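As a warm-up, study this chain.
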Amino acid sequence: MVLKRDGFGGFRYYPEDSELTILCTYEDQGHTFVIIQYLDLPFSYRLINRDGLFLLEEELFDFLHNEIEDIDAGIYENVHLAKEITELMTTQK
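Now compare it with the structure written out below.
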């Protein structure tokens, strides 16, 4: 487990070599945000600003870079799910 910024205003431990999936994306104030899920740990979500991909660790950057066209096309967009996940992650602190 590795301590990383969670994107929700804090830090969490995430599995080091977990499979990742894009759960959803949403736009806020002109920025696109991506919520990813670490599949090895239940309820393990991380919020990423699409504009900050180059700041991420290599594994996560490579994963999201391969999906960037789908992210930009809005394939994963789900504002309702994003709101639920954000509320879940910010009330657990």
